[in-house]
Every structure is written in structure tokens, then in C-alpha cells.
Amino acid sequence: MSAPRLTLDLRRIEENARTLVQRLAPRGIRVVGVTKAALGAPAVARAMLAGGVTGLGDARLENLARLHAAGVEAPRTLIRAPMLSQVDAVVAVADRSLNSEAAVLDALAAAAVEQGRTHEVVLMVELGDLREGVAAGDLVGLARHVRARTGLVLAGIGTNLACQSGVVPDQAKMDELSALAADVEAACDVSLAVVSGGNSANLDWALRTEHVGRVDELRLGEAILLGTDPLHRRPIDGLHPDAVALVAEVIEVQVKPAQPWGHLAQSAFGPPGPRRDGPAVRQAIVAVGRQDIDPDDTTPPEGTTILGASSDHLVLDVGDTGVVVGDHLSFALGYSALVRAMTSPFVSKVMGR
Ligand SMILES: *Cc1c(COP(=O)(O)O)cnc(C)c1O
Questions:
Q1: Mean pLDDT over residues 215-243, rounded?
Q2: For residues 66 and 97, what is the distance between their CA atoms, to the nearest angstrom?
Q3: Is 273 helix (H, G, I), strand (E, B) or coil?
Q4: Using CA atoms, how far apart are residues 110 and 82, in angstroms rounded to an integer?
Q5: Which of 80, 198, 236, 343 is the S-S candidate for 202 at Cβ 3.0 to 4.6 Å?
Q6: Distance, CA of 66 to CA of 341 (rounded, Å)
Q7: How many A from CA of 2 to the centre of ligand 1?
Q8: Which of the listed residues 34, 56, 297 should we mutate to test ligand 1's pocket, taking the one with most ligand atoms within 8 A of CB?
Q9: Which ligand 1 atom minimizes the distance to the CA of 36?
Q10: Which residue has the CA at smallest separation from atom 10 of ligand 1?
Q11: What is the DSSP secondary structure assignment for residue 300, as one 8-state letter?
């Protein structure tokens, strides 16, 4: 098989989704399967749906369009606020979007009316992570704004924590979200169908709390694909940590001095990492690079360590592992390595069971 290749085990992805869905269901929480790290691959979306997720979410409209075109049947949510320039396509392709700007909502409403559709809106509220969302004090006003627009349905509210600043979605934050849901319902005389609590970083809270409150939905990508909790990057008990792997080929194995020689300045990607002192190193070059993975978020095979990487070369200390030229080595990927591998045209994608 060709190298480098990214393998996605659809059975493990389905099982991860099912495990999370079954743990959250008794707590009254549904799961939207987030496909962005898989570029909206229909096979991955279908595996998530087979595992019981109730809808699909993606940050990129192109990915939602791909799911739509492939005939994947599930409600589609655009989980990044729509660009003002793309509202027509948003209404055509997504059933729902997460929003925080009145001007965008007005444009979505106009597009929905023109297309003879209704578009569901989830209003995002800023609870401290400083990415998307309106201030809590502005939420009711924006909800009223949505309610006054033909073409839009106020489906609910949501928040997103951890992604930008690492703010933990804890009980206090989720209680605040629940209270805001009640405020909006009282002020607008409406019942909200969705209170979307957050992403994979919410699982620690959601799986332990005794007080779910009004939170009835999470948007999960990383936990389903990688089995990890993004807050601490720890494996989640009972999930497959190995649904995704990158396989790449060794193109050189040579014994080299431990230290470079000559006058030293910056390397291709800034200051080079330290190389340890000591005897010569048995070093392998793997034909993959920063264009395809994030070397700081990639775990090499046992017995080897990553010494450095440039655009197209990954350099390993392979010690006495017996690695030879032509070997295909398998690497575990974190989220940032996964999105790069998935996005790189040089990495073939192998999805199977
Ligand atoms: C990416 C994203 C998610 C999913 O995050 P994971 O950590 O992959 O679960 C959920 N919500 C929003 C708004 C996102 O941008």
C-alpha cells in the first residue's frame, strides 16, 4: 500500500461514538458527531451515525456539502458562525448554524425566505474562553432579534469553551448556560429545543456531574475519532485510542554523530530542537513532514524518538529497533497531527473496518 497513508478504522470510530452516546443518553444529552477533522468524509459520518449520534456538525460548509452530496441522512449543523458572504449556501446546505452576529442572522433570514426554507439558529454565548459568542447580557436581545425574523427558528443556545484559552467547562459554566436558557425562554416565551454545552472538553463534566441542568447536547469530534479528552489529552476509559494511525515509509537509515557540526543558525522551521549529547545515533528519515503532520503531536513507534522534522522529512532516533530502509512505520496522532494528515494531499486515506 502507498505511503504515507492515514488509516481510519470505521468500526472503532463507530464503537467510540456508541460508547459516548450510551453514556450520555441516560443524562439526557444527545451527541452531534463533528466531522471536521475528517474533512466531512461520508464514511466517517456514517460510522458516527451507526454509533448513534443524532446529527452531524462541521465548521466548514464544504464538508457539510460533501455529506449532503453523498446522501448522508442526518441533520447538518454548521458549527462555525457563517461568513456573511456564504449565507445562501449555508441555508441550502445546513439545517442549523451556530451564530452570534445580528447582521449575519438578518442575511440568513433573507436567504431562507428567498429559498422558501426555515433555518434553525443556535445562539452562541461567550462564557470566558474568548472565542465565539455574545456576552451573556446581550443574549436575550439577540434571541428577540431572531424571533422577529421570518425564515429563522430559534432552536436554542450554546457555548464553546476550552478551544481558544483552555477554559474548563465546569459545573459553574454549565449552570450559567442553563440559567441563560431559562432567561431566554422566559423573555421570549419560547421553549428551546437545544442547549448545546460544548465539545469533547465537556466530557469530563458531562460524564460525572449530578446536575446536567438544561444541557442536552454536546458536539463531539476528537473524543470519537481519537478517544481522548482534549482538556488533559488523556485517553478516555473504554474508548479506542487507535482508531486513527499514520503509516509512513523509511527512506534513509544511517548512523550519524549525535551533534550537528559547523556554525549554527536557525533551521527550516525556526530554532532547531536540542539534540542530546552522547555517542552516535542510528537515525532514520521517514518520508513525511510538517506539511502532513505536526511532529509535536505525533507519537513514533515504540523504541524510537522524534529528533526533528522539516516540510518533507521526519527524523527519528531508531536505536536498536532494527528499522531498515523501506519499512513502513506506524504513528499515533493527536488532534493537530490528524487534521494536517487529513488535509495533506500527499497522504492517502484508507478507511475501512
Ligand atoms: C471543533 C468544534 C467542536 C468539536 O470539538 P472536539 O474537541 O473535536 O470535540 C465543537 N464545537 C465547535 C464550535 C467546534 O468548533
A1: 96
A2: 17
A3: coil
A4: 14
A5: 198
A6: 19
A7: 31
A8: 34
A9: 1
A10: 199
A11: P
CA nearest 152: which of 124, 199, 118? Answer: 118
Mean pLDDT computed over every residue of the chain: 97
Q: How confident is the model at residue 271 (pLDDT cuts 50, 70, 90)?
A: confident
| Grid coordinates belonging to 288 | 513525511
> Which three cell numbers mark 299?
507519537
pLDDT at 346 over 90: yes
AA letter at 66: R
Q: Is the pLDDT of residue 59 over 80?
A: yes
Residue 192, C-alpha cell as written in the block? 428551546
- Cα(174) to centroid(ligand 1), Å: 16
Which of 77, 110, 79 lies closest to 94, judged by CA?
A: 77
pLDDT at 115 over 90: yes
Ligand 1 within 6 A of CB of 79:
yes
pLDDT per residue as tens digits for the range 73-82: 999 999 999 9
Site to probe by mutation for ligand 1, drawn from 163, 195, 215, 218 as the one with most ligand atoms within 8 Å of Cβ, is 163
The x, y and z cell numbers of residue 139, run together, are: 443574549
3-state secondary structure of 242: coil
Amino acid at 276: R
Which is the closest atom of ligand 1 to the Cα of 34?
A: 4
Whole-angstrom distance, CA of residue 139 vs CA of residue 124: 8
pTM over 0.70: yes
State residue 1's pLDDT score. Answer: 85
Cell of 181: 436558557
CB-CB contact of 5 with 349 (8 Å):
yes
Cell of 147: 424571533
| pLDDT, tens digit (0-9, with 9 covering 90-100), for 330-344 | 999 999 999 999 999
